[in-house]
Here is the input.
Amino acid sequence: MTEIINAIKKAAIKINEAIKYEDTSKINSTNSSGDEQVKLDVISDEIIEKEFSTVSSICEIISEEKDSIVKINPAGKYLVAYDPLDGSSLIDVNLSVGSIFGIYKNSFDGENIVASVYVVYGPRVEMVIARDNVELFKLDEKTGEFTYQKELRLKEKGKVLAPGGTQKEWLAHHKNLIESLFKEGYRLRYSGGMVPDLHQILLKGGGLFAYPATHDKQKGKLRMLFEVFPFAYTYKLAGGLAIDGHNDLLALRPDFLHDTTPCFFGSDYEIKKVLQAYHNKG
Ligand code: AHM
Ligand code: MG
Here is the structure.
């Protein structure tokens, strides 16, 4: 596991440099989910694959930008799924983006995730590692070291709300839920990048991030292996909850590698509100 985390640190430093100096434009191609790719999606994917290719404890890798699994070492005990540059549609407007990693054993299922890591490329580069607990690290760009900052824990209730998906396409019970939370005093915090949006809720100690099923996307947008399971693991380990509207996200099994699911991440109070709203729908 240490080897994998060290490879992620090396890749993150290189991706951070690429974000600063490489071309931020789109290229004429789409990934397996049909998203238009920017050049930096591909560069970041290559940087990570190169770092992982020499890690003997990794058996297989798959990324949001790849169509299929890449085999590394048949004797390795870990499987790694990653989103090399999440939120890359924000890259041209200079908002924060991130990399997300889920580390699995045996198979790429929610119940088999054993650790997760994400990196935020913002005014500072920060990394959150979820293993035995959830820990925040900060990159010292002068030395290239990630230094430990603190353990992260969610409180029982927060103050911010990040409601994703096209509002025109929200289902009635979802719209009512979001409106009722705003009426309670929640403040809108949605950048369009799940890494900084979920990082904000985690560091502020609570709140709710939602990317629901909508009329046009009945399984939501966010991908189980690369985005949803890693953050579900992090939030649950930090004392929060992560559900699809009814059930624990980590109980899900993807039907295919790029499968998606509606998802809600938050602290206890807000997730109970989601459960109520979704239970009473219709
Ligand atoms: P990406 O992996 O193509 O960048 O898409 C994932 C991003 C998430 O970071 C974010 O929460 C979501 O897409 C935003 O979607 P929308 O533009 O529909 O609000
Ligand atoms: Mg993504």
Notes: Residues 35, 64, 83, 86-89, 164-165, 192-194, 211, 221 surround AHM (ligand 1) (CB under 6 Å).
